[in-house]
Amino acid sequence: VFASVPADREASGCTPDLDDPSARSYMALIADAFEKPLLADLDRNGRVSLAEAHAYARIHDDTVDLPIASSDAWLSRALGDGAPDVAKVSIDTLVRDARPAEKAVIEGLRPKDANAARARAELESLDARIEELERQASKLSDERERARRTLVDAVLTEWPELANPYHAIARKLLAQDAREVVTFMKKQAALATMADLDEKLVGRDTEVLDLEKRAVRLERWFQALQNVANEKAVRRAKNTSNVAALDALL
After folding, report:
1. What digits encode the pLDDT tens for the residues 45-74?
2. For residues 224, 225, 227 and 230, what is the CA-based torsion angle, rounded to 10 degrees?
3. Would you say 28 and 21 are in contact if contact means Cβ atoms under 8 Å apart?
4. What is the value of pTM for the model shown?
5. Can you give the pLDDT at residue 229?
6. pLDDT tens digits, residue range 97-127?
7. What is the pLDDT of residue 188?
8. Helix or strand or coil: residue 3?
9. CA nearest 190: which of 159, 124, 144?
10. Predicted local confidence at residue 77, as pLDDT
C-alpha cells in the first residue's frame, strides 16, 4: 500500500480533477509519474514502477502530506526501538546503499545543509514555531467567538424575534438583503473586532502553512534516510524470515 499520509496524520485533501494543472497533491502526482518516464523511471529500466511513482510524488508534492509505503511501516515496526539513529550515520553511505527510488528522494529533498543533526534541529525549531502560532490562533479564535456572541446578543436584544427564523417578524427582517439588520450590525464595535481578528487569523494560518510545508520536506528527507538505514539493519541482522517479508513487500 502507498498512501499520502500515515495513519496518525490528517491528509491535506485533493482535487477530483487530475487534469487540473494546479493539482500537485499525492494522487495527482502518482498519475503524473506514469506520464513522465524520463523523470520518474529512476532505475532507468524503461518502465515506471509504483515504488518509483511513489518516490516521484514524495519529491514533488507541495502539500503538507507525508507519503508512506507498507514497507516503511513494516521496517519501523520490525526494528522498534532498535532502529538506527540516522543523525549518527553517514549520509553518503546511505545514499550509496539506497535503492534507486529512495536515493532519488534523498537527493531530491536534500536540504542545503545536508547534515542530519542540524536538519533535525531545524525541524524541531519549525515544529516549535508552528505550535506557538497555533496557540496564538487558538486564543484569537476564542476572542473572535466572544465578539461573535456579543454581536448576536446585540441583534437579539434589538429583535428578539430573530431567535426564531420562522417568526413573521424575523422572516420580514431577513427578507431580500435584510438591510435593516445589516445596517444595525455594521454599527456594532463587535463586528469590527471580528473583522480584525479574522485578518490576524488568516495571517497566522498562512504562516503556519508555509512552515508546515518547509517542515514536511525535511520529514520526508528524514523518512527516506530512515528507510535506507532500517533496511540495512534488517538485512545485516540476517533474520531470514524478516528479510523474506521485506523482499515480498518491496
Report:
1. 999 999 999 999 999 998 899 999 999 999
2. 180
3. no
4. 0.84
5. 96
6. 899 999 999 999 999 877 888 899 999 999 9
7. 97
8. strand
9. 144
10. 94
Q: For the segment 127-180, what is each residue's pLDDT rounded down to a tens digit?
A: 999 999 999 999 999 999 999 999 999 999 999 999 998 999 999 999 989 999
Rounded CA separation 194/140 (Å):
10
What residues have CB less than 8 Å from 212, skipping those under 6 apart? 64, 130
**Which amino acid would we find at residue 43?**
D
Question: What contacts 219, CB < 8 A, 6 or more positions away?
Answer: 66, 123
The set of cell numbers assigned to 82 is 532498535
For residue 24, which amino acid is it? R
3-state secondary structure of 69: strand
Query: What dihedral angle (degrees, nearest 10) is formed by the CA atoms of 153, 156, 160, 161?
Result: -140
β-bridge partners, 68: 3
Query: How many C-beta atoms lie closer than 10 Å to residue 174's C-beta?
Result: 15
- Give me the residue label for grid cell 438583503: 177
Cell of 230: 532500517
